[in-house]
Write a structure and sequence with these properties.
Two copies of one chain form a homodimer. By secondary structure, chain A is an all-alpha fold. The first copy, chain A, has ten helices and no strands. The two termini of chain A are about 30 Å apart. Chains A, B: This is TetR/AcrR family transcriptional regulator. Chains A, B: It comes from Streptomyces antnestii.
């Protein structure tokens, strides 16, 4: 992601943004119709009307496009701001559960994790996409610190990781569906640990 | 795993056990030398001296062998029994961290998760291997219930999943190394949630 301009960054609302929108829309349609395993840059080019060399220059690979699609999607999810830390964590857990309730999203995450196992560049893209999303939602923790709900030295990234991890463990390792109980236990466990100073202070 | 006899179950210590030992040892050597992506049943047959049709009948696929290898490995990890719930959870977290500290183990898990994304049979094998291991270590929670350290209606599987999840999130999603701080925060967060009744009672 550091080796090329960020997709859509050159001329917001202009041709760059339109190109990105067309390619990501084509990727979404292709994922629904043929799935990730059958996705190719040529198919994306044919469907989007964007030349394949343009797609390759901007995203490098099918996986690059799909990670960008994930990033675009997660940017549309609002960050909870209820005025109360516990409620914010529950809402965030609900949002994660809601995302993974869509088979399309679940397949996407699984495909990305699988592709990352074989390609360090994709691994970096996956990491970047998750970190970008985490950056945004750490606001929940920063606001909780301001309200003195959690210790000031709380590591916000660790709180978000603690809340998120059980969902990915359920999907990728236990391979079962996410349910409401997981939403509650994940949010509650992260809440209590954070309030209790478990994520404080470094060592 | 339900469609065939469990590997090694027919004649413990006999030819069945020797065959299993030879194939799993060959798999371990191959993984170290050529890696998972290059592993084939023919290579396993050549290296182990076991006929390829025997391997195919018993394990069905390379992934079947590798999952059995993981199961064999995890069966050798002792279940902590310090007499204290918190200490047991810390020791379990240390054992998980120790397992993933070996690049070979990390690659194995990653390869299994990747393979599961494309093959429901492998997904079932992965799930079965993790559940078998979890079955064993839930003893930690059962003993804590007997000592009245946690509420009697605590869901032992949820406690173990809560402790384990952050390690897989770190490796597969954030794609960073596991460190001592993760051992501590994972064990402590699971401990406090379990003692506080977060995993109690169903809904």
């Amino acid at each position: 992601m550091t080796e090329r301009p960020r997709p859509g960054s050159a001329r917001p609302g202009g041709r760059t943004a339109r190109t990105r929108a067309a390619v990501l829309a084509a990727a979404l349609d292709e994922l629904d119709e043929v799935g990730f395993a059958a996705l190719t840059l040529d198919r994306l080019a044919a469907r989007s009307g964007v030349h394949v060399s343009t797609i390759r220059r901007r995203w490098r690979s099918v996986e690059g496009v799909v990670v960008d699609l994930m990033a675009q999607h997660s940017a549309t999810i609002p960050t909870p701001d209820s005025g109360e830390f516990r409620q914010d964590l529950y809402e965030l857990a609900e949002a994660i559960a809601g995302f993974h309730a869509l088979p399309r999203s679940r397949n996407l995450v699984e495909a990305m994790v699988a592709a990352a196992a074989y390609d360090p560049h994709i691994a970096e893209l996956v990491r970047g996409a998750f970190m970008a999303r985490t950056d945004v939602v750490t606001q929940i923790v920063h606001r909780a610190v301001e309200r003195s709900e959690v210790p000031p030295d709380t590591d916000a990234y660790e709180v978000i990781a603690a809340l998120s991890a059980p969902f990915y463990y359920r999907l990728l390792i236990l391979r079962r569906d996410i349910d409401e109980r997981l939403v509650r236990t994940s949010a509650e466990a992260a809440y209590r640990a954070a309030c209790g100073g478990v994520f404080g202070g470094g060592e």
